[in-house]
Amino acid sequence: MIIQERNLTPQQIVSELDKYIVGQKDAKRSVAIALRNRWRRLNSDEEIREEIIPNNILLIGPTGVGKTEIARRLAKLAHAPFMKVEASKFTEVGYVGRDVESMIRDLTDVAVSMVKQEMQERVKEEAAQKAEARILDILIPPVKTSSAGFSASSNSDFDPDNASDSELNERTRERFREKLKNGELEDREIEIEVQSSKNPMMQVFGPQGVEEMGINLQDMLGNIGKGNKRSKRKLPIKEAREILIEEEAEKLIDHESAVQEALERVQKQGIVFVDEIDKIAEDSSKSGKSGPNVSRQGVQRDLLPIVEGSTVNTKHGIVKTDHVLFIGSGAFHVSKPSDMIPELQGRFPIRVELKSLTENDFVDILSKPKNALTKQYQAMLKAEGVTIHFTDEAIRELAKIAAQVNSAVENIGARRLHTIMSSLFDELLFAVPDDINSGEITIDPGYVEKQLANLVKDKDLSHYIL
Questions:
Q1: pLDDT digits (tens, 9 = 90+) for 142-179
Q2: Beta-strand relationship, 386-390 and 439-443
Q3: Span 5-118+259-353: which CATH code?
Q4: Which sign, positive or negative, has the C-alpha torsion 55, 61, 64, 66?
């Protein structure tokens, strides 16, 4: 169940983020306030509401400290359309590549899918009934009759010898309907006719406007013959039911109102996370020099009106970006926030510096979050019938190794834990279930030492593997 933002105070938002992200209190505090401010704006007096602009946030910190995860979790809490983009993928107008407006078009696509999914959930019960009727028609096709139809009678009054074809047919259908409801026919195969999902794909990169034209062409070509292309598939009833429910739900929802609601949600609640924004900030010490990154400042100038507030044409309609929340993120190792053009700097008034992760942070990351790596590996191996236990000392040893490798090779933050855990469980994951198919295994410092000692000692090897 997704918690709606209107029910969450800033402190509750931070508490929710704490379940998945270790440390970074300042960043959590800033994004919590920014999220709550959106609710405050929507509930403020109408005459001032449009004047309240979002306070965009710039997250500054090395890789792997939780910048992206904070934004992603925030979007889930807000139940808001969310799009993560990398600033380095965009080019200024006139260069071959994606223009900055495409981030809003992608965000709108996400919102439309989100709203349609919600609408389908609301009509799922009705869609399930229609899907069951379709399955029943395939199993026992109804008999066409010109009479008023079969009238239900008690079992004691029913005489099979004197019953009409329609009565016998309806009796049979009733028995199969009960079997369907009781799940007795789940593995039985039926042939269903479904909408073909294969549409022509086209994407055009180039000067401003051409990419949008390419999307419109794709949309038009995709609609040619749509609704006529159907294919037959033979599936078990349990799989066919899911496909038919989705198809029936699609028919039941109002697509026009879904698009309108999605457009409104993008404009009022949309969140765009612009990662690697430091890559488009030109190092002031190298200013004036030409090179492969000559378009950096141009990308900033193209991004400025989107962040300030402008209208963007999408295939679903016009979107105003005045109240879209932008969260910028970057390591800023080479360039500095002050290297961005002044106008863009001013559009990210909240600056938060995220701290590098320490050994103690790694201990917490491995043990506290709901999605901790230790819990993920335990869940995977439990599926094979093997129970894994981690001792506190083993977790401390793993954290120590992660901190050492980060300082010796390259600091990639919490991502180092993924590579270390992968190496730690490499042998075990290969042995299960052929050599080990049940039982309990305790991961202690001795096991960690055995699996990782050579990698940690061999600096050249750790450089490539860890």
A1: 876 554 444 444 455 555 656 677 778 788 888 888 88
A2: parallel
A3: 3.40.50.300
A4: negative
Check for a shared fold between 5-118+259-353 and 359-456.
Answer: no
For the cut 70, the answer to whether the pLDDT of residue 219 exceeds it is no
Counting runs of H as helices and runs of E as strands, what totals does the chain give? 18, 11
Q: Which CATH class is domain 359-456?
A: mainly alpha
**CB proximity list for 103: less than 8 A, separation 6 or greater:** 83, 85, 90, 272, 274, 306
Query: CB of 253 within 8 A of CB of 144?
Result: no
In sequence order, the β-bridge partners of residue 84 are 273
List the beta strands (DSSP E) in 147-276: 189-195, 230-236, 271-275
Q: Which amino acid is at 190?
A: I
CB burial of 240-276 (b: ≥16 within 10 Å; e: otherwise) equals: bbeebbebbbeeebeeeebbebbbebbbbbbbbbbbb
Type of residue found at 118: E
Cα→Cα distances 430→89, 395, 435, 466, Å = 38, 22, 9, 19
Lookup result for tokens 């863009």: 344
Query: What are the extents of the domains in the chain?
Result: 5-118+259-353, 124-148+155-252, 359-456
